[in-house]
Design goal:
Layout: H1 5-27, H2 30-48, H3 56-79, H4 81-100, H5 106-121, H6 124-134, H7 140-147, H8 151-171, H9 177-188
Length: about 190
């Protein structure tokens, strides 16, 4: 469909309530969920106004989900490193259940254990950079300054760590290659 004012309005009135409920499941804050849904529609409009948008509905859900993950990350950063470590499993479990539609935590805990094994096997500097990035929520520039290395070196360490995780989880049979990107996103970027 071409995203014009009429189709956009129809899309908004049809899907905004459902998207608000979806965002509320992540955030547990109705007002914040509504704000993020509004931002998501604005983003869609700015990107596709007057253009073809074949998969607007899945795209909207993805935009809302990503905005929720960003907001969760911001909120946990504000609470400090300890809050991240205490909140992370709860957030991950919630996202896991939403993505895969299951309450079975066994697979998640097995995956979490495999992730710990891989993190422990990384070279010291690589592990340090990766944990600062993913667990402490630091930006590449902040990590580079804190460790006295270049941002390029930070990027290389993170890339190496992600490759190690991907290779290990696929080869161990815990994850299929098709689900790997989604799992890494859920576990590390929430």
């Amino acid at each position: 469909m071409i995203l014009d004012e009429t189709s956009f309005e129809r899309l908004y009135y049809t899907y905004a309530p459902r998207l608000c409920n979806y965002a509320h499941r992540f955030l547990r804050d109705r007002q914040m969920a509504e704000d993020l849904v509004q931002e998501s529609f604005v983003k869609l409009w700015e990107k596709y106004m007057g253009r073809e948008c074949e998969s607007c509905i899945p795209l909207l859900f993805m935009i809302v989900r990503n905005k929720c993950l960003e907001r969760i990350k911001q909120l946990t950063r504000k609470r400090g490193v300890e809050a991240i470590r205490h909140q992370q499993p709860e957030c991950d479990e919630m996202l896991y259940a939403l993505d895969f539609g299951t309450d079975d935590r066994t697979l998640y805990h097995e995956l979490e254990e495999e992730i710990r094994k891989v993190a422990d096997s990384l070279p010291d500097r690589c592990r340090e950079v990766f944990l600062m990035s993913r667990m402490d929520g630091m930006k590449n520039k902040e990590i580079a300054q804190a460790l006295g290395i270049s941002e390029k070196a930070v990027e290389k360490h993170i890339t190496r760590a992600l490759k190690e995780f991907k290779a290990h989880l696929i080869s161990s049979g815990h994850i299929s290659p098709d689900l790997m990107s989604l799992i890494i996103f859920v576990v590390f970027f929430s």
